[in-house]
Write a structure and sequence with these properties.
Distance between the termini: 52 Å
Number of domains: 1
Shape: elongated
Strand content: under 5%
Helix content: over 70%
Number of helices: 9
Largest sheet: none
Radius of gyration: 22 Å
Order of helices and strands: HHHHHHHHH
Number of strands: 0
Oligomer: single chain
Structural class: mainly alpha
């Protein structure tokens, strides 16, 4: 056994662990700074409106297409499975619960992380490597107030609205398939209304709020910490999507567990 190889491996593991802890600490500092700036100085309404249009409004088409066809596929699969037990008429109940509780907020967040998270990381990363962020500091302005806060608030407020639309479109997609499978539209709608409660609806909104904050904060942190020129911008864009997507899926488990135990 080579002790030098073991020592090298432990050293590499220690360095990676320290780097990960440093990244988490940097993310926490940025999040705390953004919250403090929000309480102390508020947000620039005009910039917030611009970012909301860019993040939420321009993402509506991709979210709508994803939700609609996912609802149609889910209805097909659910109806085929429930037919074995003679429960095909209750396809709407399963589709609605699946979308409102899980698929709506999670799919919307993943779509937003691919489009918005990557865009934020690329935009702020380009500003970082071209020293535009340093120029903002040199002029006496706070980059967090100018760049981070409007994007975070726009995503945090926009994602719940997109999630509501995704839930409605997913259920509508299931309705389109259910009517083709011989399930009455009135029965489908009534089964949805009988199963989905206001509590389920608010759980979906709560998840969307957290997911919107995660996606935007990850994109901002990765973008502002970008180094290495244009190559670094490309790496940061990829890293932002990967980290945001994994964070959404991991946090979804803990949020669900917390909500169910409450």
């Amino acid at each position: 056994m080579n002790p030098f190889g073991l020592t090298t491996g432990l050293t590499a593991l220690g360095e990676r662990t320290l780097a990960a802890v440093e990244q988490v600490g940097g993310f926490a500092r940025l999040a705390g700074h953004a919250f403090a700036v929000l309480l102390r100085r508020g947000v620039r309404v005009r910039e917030l409106a611009v970012q909301f249009e860019s993040i939420a409004v321009r993402s509506s088409s991709i979210v709508a297409i994803t939700a609609l066809f996912t609802g149609m596929v889910l209805a097909l699969q659910t109806a085929a499975s429930l037919t074995r037990f003679g429960a095909k008429p209750y396809t709407g109940s399963f589709v609605a619960l699946a979308f409102v509780l899980e698929l709506g907020p999670v799919l919307t967040a993943l779509m937003i992380s691919g489009r918005v998270g990557a865009g934020i990381a690329a935009e702020l990363g380009s500003m970082s490597v071209t020293e535009q962020v340093d120029a903002i500091r040199a002029l006496g302005a706070d980059p967090v107030h100018r760049l981070v806060l409007p994007r975070v608030l726009a995503a945090t407020l926009g994602l719940p609205l997109l999630t509501v639309a995704a839930n409605l479109l997913g259920i509508t997609g299931g309705l389109l398939i259910a009517t083709q499978l011989g399930i009455g539209a009135n029965f489908y709608v009534q089964s949805v209304l009988n199963v989905v409660t206001l509590t389920d609806f608010f759980q979906s909104i709560q998840k969307a709020l957290v997911f919107g904050w995660i996606v935007s904060m990850v994109g901002c942190y990765v973008g502002l910490s970008t180094t290495g020129g244009t190559v670094g911008v490309g790496r940061s864009t990829t890293r932002a999507v990967v980290v945001a997507s994994i964070s959404v899926l991991v946090s979804d488990f803990f949020i669900t567990k917390l909500l169910l135990s409450a």
